[in-house]
Amino acid sequence: MTSAERLRSAMTRVTLDDVEHPLEPFWRGIIAYRVLTLVTVIAVTLYHLPGYTSMVGAAAVLAAMTVWTGVTSWGYLGGLPGAPDRRGRLALADLVASCAAMATTPLIVTDAALDLGQPGMGSIWTSGSVLACAVAYRVRGGVAAALVISAALVLSKQRFGVLELGDVELLVLAGLTVGFASRVLTRTAARLRRLAAEQAADAERERLTRSIHDGVLQVLAHVQRRGSEIGGGAAELGTLAGEQEVALRTLLTGGAGNSDASGRRDLGAALRTLSSPRVTVSAPAHALELAAPTVDEIEAAVRAALANVVVHAGPDARAWVLVEELGDALEVSVRDDGPGIPEGRLAEAEAEGRLGVARSIRGRVEQLGGTLTLDTGPDRGTEWVLRVARTDGARPGEIRRR
Amino acid sequence: MADEQAVRVMVVDDHPIWREGVARDLTDRGCEVVATAPDGPAAVRIASAVRPDVVLMDLNLGATSGVDAIGEIMGRLPDTRILVLSASGEHADVLEAVKAGATGYLVKSAGVDELLDAVRRTARGVAVFTPGLAGLVLGEFRRMADAPARPQGEPAVPALTERETEVLRLVAKGLTAKQIGERLVVSHRTVESHIQNTLRKLQLHNRSQLVRYAIEQGLADDD
After folding, report:
1. Does residue A300 fall inside a structural domain?
2. For the domain that residue A346 is a member of, what is the CATH number?
3. Number of domains in chain B
4. Of A199, A221, A246, which residue constitutes the final position of a domain?
5. Could A282 and B89 be called an inter-chain contact, meaning their C-beta atoms sit closer than 8 Å?
6. Does B135 touch chain A (CB under 8 A)?
7. Angle of CA points B93, A218, B85, to nearest 5°
8. Do A221 and B94 touch (CB under 8 A)?
9. Cβ-nearest to B131 among A277, A282, A325
10. Do A264 and A145 fall into the same domain?
């Protein structure tokens, strides 16, 4: 699986659960609330049943409430899969049904019972429709539904005292809170959805870019090959194409080897930026992370060594850079296929002060507490070997894989 | 080479210009290009039918993976050799391709003669190493050796002999097999066989890990 595919599948999971249907937990909560309040109301009504004007009427209202709870529970779950979301309308119907249940109060509950503080028909069960309207229509829906139920409460009981005032306060508060929470959740989900869409677009763009870059690399490689075959002016074009090919490939694969947030830098990636048609850089596939200043120093030393190759072996000499980790040490070798330095010439050159570049390499390596060795001879080329201890704590086993 | 039988090559690349260009170059120089394919699945299908000696494989095949295709082709045609010819030089991909069974790697900017030589050597079963690939393989063996203690039952990590390490390092430093032979006072055939052994160890280790994974996942058959 490519990283883009992984991202896409991870996003699908998030999308389905949280982003597409952020209010789903609310609806399930309302169903639970509805069932619990129904049980409570049935218990309280049965308790008061002997005192009612119409026991049959009370039983009929309770039966209707039970059926309606079943209907709304099914509806609030979302109905049949794939069906359009009609929960907003169902919440409004719920509001009407709740008011209807309350409206039966004067026919069933006696004035005396109401005076004693007994609840009217429906009572706390009806507040479920306020929550449903709040989830479906946010703050405005919640508050409006709370006011409707409050009005129904007051009208059906024909009373407005401390008890009723407390109920109205609780209803409005519930409508307001749930409506607000529903609004925040919906907006957050919308933002997440936008973000997910942007990420997917980014991943796609990156994939396209890669394929375009690959195409450019192909063409550059092609021009280089054909150019060198044809020769003459075309060969020059081919060389230019080859230089650009290496530069682009390094940019794409090495990521330029910038240091990360913790101030570490991948030595392999850093040295790969020095590749050119005549310089080949070989390094492990995994990252060799070191403190950024150490990598900078090594890079500068290798740069100096490569400059030295041009000076002493000519601009056409080829060079190879090899980066290796040897347990607790790192070894970087810079070799060229030039004529090499004959024995004795080195001391002579040093005496004449002509090893300036070499000395600057040595200086940098010694500053890092490393060693520099030179392997050279006629027909053997010249090879500088920089060896630096890994003092900054990163054990080879802990090297992060890219 | 004229008396030798022509090498039967299959070219897999998603860029038509490149595919045709390489096919023409190889045909002009005496190879027989028996098939071309634009993507991984097609490569696996066609290779099973035409059984080429050498598959010249790009790793960046649009939406499909060259590495997966290499694994499948090696599974079906163990005698076919795979030479990776890649423009992108994705280090991790190249390493995976070699682990999956490719026996050589060349960047696309390599000259025609270099390519032809690489195809012929691959057909003879000689590994084609660039200095870059040698550096990757060296690094991979080092990483495996340095990795933290493995759980019980994990197959032992293969190690390179001192001589193999020495040879790989010289390849990575740009020496040819002949130059290496001169330095180490051995024949260049010996050098080539050392190089090949390093690849075989890497591929065997990869395969044993796959088998172990398959057994763990209950995917392995008794036969």
Report:
1. yes
2. 3.30.565.10
3. 2
4. A199
5. no
6. yes
7. 45
8. no
9. A282
10. no
Mean pLDDT by 10 residues, chain A (402 residues): 55 57 89 95 91 90 95 86 82 95 92 88 94 94 95 92 92 95 91 86 78 78 83 85 79 58 81 86 88 88 86 84 89 88 65 62 84 80 87 45 36
The DSSP code for B83 is E
Instruction: Report the residue of B24, B25, B108 to disrupt the A interface, i.e. the one with the largest count of A CBs within 10 Å.
Output: B108
Q: Do A326 and B87 touch (CB under 8 A)?
A: no
Distance CA A271, CA A296 (A): 10
Contacts by A18-26, CB closer than 8 A, 24 or more apart: A18/A189, A18/A192, A19/A189, A19/A192, A19/A193, A19/A196, A20/A189, A20/A193, A22/A185, A22/A186, A22/A188, A22/A189, A23/A135, A23/A182, A23/A185, A23/A186, A24/A78, A26/A135, A26/A178, A26/A181, A26/A182, A26/A185
Expressed as residue numbers, the domain containing B31 is: 8-128
Q: What six digits make up the tokens of A389?
A: 């201890």
Q: What does the pLDDT look like over B98-122, one tens digit per residue?
A: 999 999 898 887 788 889 999 999 9
Choosing among A225, A337, A379, which should be mutated to test the B contact, i.e. which has the most B CBs within 10 A? Answer: A225
With beta carbons less than 8 A apart as the criterion, state whether A256 and A292 touch. no
- The pTM (predicted TM-score) of the whole model is 0.60
SS3 B74: helix
Residues A388 and A289 grouped into a single domain: yes
Q: Can you name the residues that pair with A332 across neighbouring β-strands?
A: A323, A386
CA B142 to chain A, closest CA, distance in angstroms equals: 7
* B117 and A CB contact within 8 Å: no
Residues of B in contact with A283 (CB under 8 A): 91, 135-136, 139
Q: Which residues of B touch A337 (CB under 8 A)?
A: 174
For A252, name the nearest residue in chain B, comparing CA atoms only.
Answer: B88
Q: Which residue of chain B is at minimal alpha-carbon distance from A332?
A: B173
Does B113 contact chain A (CB < 8 Å)?
no
CB A332 within 8 A of CB A383: no
3-state secondary structure of A341: coil
Cα–Cα distances in Å, from B29 out to A30, A218, B2, B7, B23? 78, 22, 10, 10, 10
Tell me if residue A335 falls in helix, strand or coil. strand
- Among A211, A224, A322, the residue with its CB nearest the CB of B109 is A224
Tokens of A194: 């936008």
* Residue found by looking up tokens 């197959």 in the block: B155
Q: Which of A215, A283, A318 sits opposite B15 (nearest CB)?
A: A215
Q: Cα B137 vs. chain centroid, distance in angstroms?
A: 12
Question: In sequence order, what DSSP letters do the residues of A165-220 get, joined into one string?
Answer: HHHHHHHHHHHHHHHHHHHHHHHHHHHHHHHHHHHHHHHHHHHHHHHHHHHHHHHH
